[in-house]
Amino acid sequence: MRKWLVQPDFVVERDPERCIQCQVCVRQCANDVHSYDPEDELVSSDSATCVGCHRCATLCPTGAISIREAELEFHPNANWTAWTIRNIYKQAESGGVLLTGMGNDRPYVNYWDRMVLNASQVTNPSIDPLREPMELVTYLGRKPDQIEFDRSNGGYSVKTELATQLELQIPVMFSAMSYGSISLNASVALARAAAEAGTFANSGEGGLHRDIYPYSKNMIVQVASGRFGVDVEYLNRAAAVEIKIGQGAKPGIGGHLPAQKVDRAVSETRMIPEGTDALSPAPHHDIYSIEDLRQLIFAIKEVTHYEKPVSVKISAVHNVAAIASGCVRAGADIVAMDGLLGGTGAAPTMIRNNVGIPIAVALAAVDSRLREEGIRNRASLVVAGGFRSSADIVKAIALGADAVYIGTGALVAMGCHLCQKCYTGKCNWGIATQDPYLTKRLNPDVATRRLGNLLRGWALEIKEMLGGMGINAIESLRGNREHLRGVGLSESELEVLGIKPAGVGA
Amino acid sequence: MKTDSAKYVIIGNSTAAIGCIEGIRSVDPDRSVILVAKEPCHTYSRPLISYFLAGEIDAERMHYRPRDFYDANRVDARLGLAATRVDPEQKIVETTNGSLHFEKLLIASGGRPFVPDIPGIEASGVFTFTSWNDATVIGEYIEGNRAKRAVVVGGGLIGIKAAEALRARGLDVLVVELAGRLLPLALDAEGSRMAEESLRAAGVELECSTTVNRVLTEDGCVSGVLQGNDRTASCNLVIVAAGVVPATGLVAGSGIGVDKGILIDEGCRTSVEGIFAAGDVAQGCDALSGESRPIPIFPNAYHQGRVAGVNMAGGDASTNGTFSMNSVEVFGLPTVSVGLATASGDGYEELVHDDEASGTYRRVVLRGDRIVGALFVGDIDRAGIFTGLMRQGIDISSFKDLLLTEEFGLISLPEEYRKHVVMGEAIEV
Amino acid sequence: MKRIYAREEYCLGCRLCEINCLVKRSKSRKIIKAFRKERDSIVPGIQVEEGERVSFALQCRHCVDAPCIEACITGAMHRDSESGAIVCDEERCVGCWSCIMVCPAGAVRRGRERRVASKCDLCMGESTPVCVEGCPNEALIYEDR
Fold it and tell me: What does pTM read for this prediction?
C-alpha cells in the first residue's frame, strides 16, 4: 500500500544547462533517485527517496545538482512545525517507532555557543605557538593522592608508583563507534589515524576486527551490555578497557544492529551468528548496583594484570554527578560521559532528542562534585556529545575535562553528510554500511589522511587559543573556569556551570 | 674481390631485419652491423604497398622506421646489394659486389611470390604484388595504359588488398579464387560469406572454385583471361596473388637445414651455429598445431627478428608461441583471425556468436580447456584479450560461458590473471 | 617508469576517469561543451570494466615488451623516449588494427573520428594523468613500481 501521507523530505534540482548526461549520479545514488532513460537519452531524478546525503552533487563533474528541502509548505504554525506533522504521518502509515541516526538535531541551547574564552592583553602577554613550545600532551588515568620524591645525586625522582596512564599527544580521541554500525574501512581508518596522531580510538561494542590488531596499542576496547567480541585476548590486546553503561544518544536503552548489517565478518568479530540482529540489552544484566560495577571493574583489572586503565562510560542524565562519583569510588580510572547531543547509528527519534542532559552542564556538575569530595584526581574525565570544533574542545577543557571524544566530527571528516539515515545500512559514503558495493567508497588511506588532517588542524587551533590566553600547556587550562565567561545564560545556568557572566572581571 | 667483415651481418631489410637490429642493440650497443638488401630503398613496410597503390599514403609514410634509423643504430646499410650465397664454413656471405665475413648472421630474405605456370603470364600488364616497386610500376601502368578492368588471381590476403587498391583507383575488378570461398585460410564459411558480401557491395566481382588457365593478349599486352570454367573475362591488367613461398634459394646446398623454409628452433637458430633466420623465410613450430611450418605473418616476423638479434648478441630470448594471426579490413569490414580460427571436428569445440542485425560474427575454437583459435568479423574490439589467453595457454573453463557475451573483458577473467595484466609488471609477448 | 595502477578494491565504477579523459582529448577542453558537441567522436583512453561486485578502470599498460609495437605495420606505435609511454602517431597509423589484435589487455580501440588506433598515452605533457587526478576515491594511482 502506498504511504500517501508521507511526502519527500528533499527536492533534487538538476540544471539542464549544466547536466551532461554522464550518469555519475545514477551510479552513485544508493537510493535510486537518479535514472537514465536510454530512449530519451536523459538523466532524470525522482526526489521521493532522496535522503539529502549530497553524494550525487559532490561527484557531479559540472555541479549541476542541488538539493533543497521539500517545498510543501504548511500554514505557519510555531507549535505544529512541519517536522512534528510529518512524524505523525509516518507513524500513522507504519505503526512503528520513529528511527533515526547521528545526534540530536533539535534546537536546544548549545552551551559551547554561550561561552567565550579569554585572551591576554597588556598585563599577561600572549604566547606565539609558532615560536614557543606548546604542550598539548594529556595523561588519562588515575592520579595518586600524593607524590613522594626521592632525592639523590642532586636530582629528583618520583618514588610513588603511578597507575598506568594513557598518553595522548592531543586531548582528542575518537569516540566509540562499533564495527557493524560503521564499515570496516571506517573502523580501520579511525584506528590508523589515532595511532598516527598519537591518540586513541574506541572500538565501540562491535569487538576488535583482525585488521585493527596492528593498531591495538592505540585502541580502547568496550565491554558493553551485549558483551560482543569480549574474551581475554580482546581485553589484553588493547591499551585500555571501557565498560559501557550508556551513551548520550539513547540513555537507558541498549543498542540495536539490524540483521542485514551483520555479515560474515561482523558476525565473526562480534561472535554472534551471521544474519541475526545484534541486540544489546539496556542494563548489563550483571550490574544491578554500584558494588556489581566495582566487581566488574576489578575482574577486568585482574584479567589484564592491573596494567591497563579501566574506563566507565555513562550517559549524562539528571543524577550524573552522583553516578560519576560512584563510578570513581568503584575504581574507574577514567569516567567518560556522553551528553544530549551524542550520536548513534540507530536510535528511536524520541529518545535521541529528549533523553539526557547537555554535556557542558554534566561536566561542570561532575567536575565540581568530584573536587568537593576530594577525589577528582582518582579518575580522568572524558566528555563526548556533539563537539564540533577546536573551540568547543578548549571550552570543555577549561570547564574541567581531561579530554574529549569526537564521533560525529570524525565521521564528517571522513565524508558523512549527516543525512541521519545510518540505520538503513545504505550509507552512500561507505561509512555506516556493510554493503560491499558501498563500503568500497571509503578508501581507508584517504579517510585516514582526512582524520589526521582534522586532528592536525585542531591541534594548531588549540595551540593558538592557548597562546592567546597566555598559556603554554593544556594542563594550565584544565578546570580553569576563570578563562570562561557566559553570554546569554541565566543566573542558575551560570551557577551550575560555575562560570561568571561576560563583563565581570577576575 | 673485397671482403668486408662485421660482427653481425643481416640479409634483408624488412621487419625481421629491423627487429634483429633492435634486438642486437638492446644487448650490444657497439659492435659492427652490416645489412644487405636487394631492394635499394630505406626499410619499408611490405603490407603498406596496397595503401600506396591506392593512393592513401605517400612515399614518406611507406617507411617503417625514421630516416636516421640506420645511423642512430650504427648500422652499415648496403641497400641495393643482393646476397647470392651463404658459406657457413667460411662464415661468408657472397653478394653481387664482394663478400662479407660474419661472426653471426641473420637470414631474413623473406618470401618470393609464387607464380603459377600459366600460358601468357609473361605478357605486359601482368604483375605480382609483393614489393614497393610492384606497387609503383602497377600504378604507372594504370596511368600509362588507362587500365579500366583488372583481374586479381587469388582471393587470399594479398589478392583482397590488391583488389581494394585497384578499386580505389577506379578500376573494375574481378577476383578469381581457387577455393570455394574468399580468404579460405583466415575465415570460416560464415566469415567468408560476410566478406564476400562486403566485397560485392563495393562493386567488385568474385568467382570462386575456379582458376585462370590462360592469359589472353593483344599486341603483347594482356587483354583478358580464360578461366577454368571456360569463361573469359576481359581486362587490361592482371595481378597474380597466388601466394608467397620462402626465398630459400640463398642457402641451397649450403648445408643449412631447409624444409619449406629455413628451419629454426625457438631461439631462431638454424642448424648451423652462429646462423639465424627469421621472418617469411623461416620455418619454426606452430605453437597451437605443433606443426613445423613457415608462418609468414608481420608480428611474428618482427618478433623472430628481435629474438634472433638478442641471441646473436649473447642474450637469451625465445619466441613464445608463434601462430598465425591476421587483421585485415575487407572493403571496410574489419576481420581478425588468430590461431586455428577455422578448425573444427574431432577434439575441437566451437563457440559462435552471430548477430546479423549488428553485422557481428565471433567464433572461438577450444581444444580441451584452452582457446586455440578466434575469429572476429565486424566487431573486432578487444580481440587481443583472446590472443593473450591463447599465448599464455590460460584454462578458460571457469569463464567459458562468458567468452562471447557483450560484457566479456578482463573483468571476466580469473582474478590472478587479471591482476597480472592490470597491476603486474610488463606483459611479455 | 611511472604507470597508472587501478585498485579494484577502491573503484566505485563512477566513470569520472572516462569523463576526465574525454574532456582532455576534446578540442574545447570544457566539459559541458565537450559533452554536447564532441562526445560521439572521442574514444577515452581509459574505460571502466564492471562486473557484479567488482569494477576497475583499464588503460594501456605501456608494457615493457609491447606486443602492439611489434605488430604495428607502419611503425606508428612507438615508445616516447622521455616518458616511456607507448604512443600511436596518428599521422602514420593506417587503421589496420594489428595492435587491437595483439593487445592482451584489450586496451586499444578503433578511433571514431578517424580510422586510427586510439589508446591511453599517459596524458603526455601533464605531470599527473587526468584520470588519476580526478578519481574521487583514489583508486587510480600513478607510481613507479
Answer: 0.88
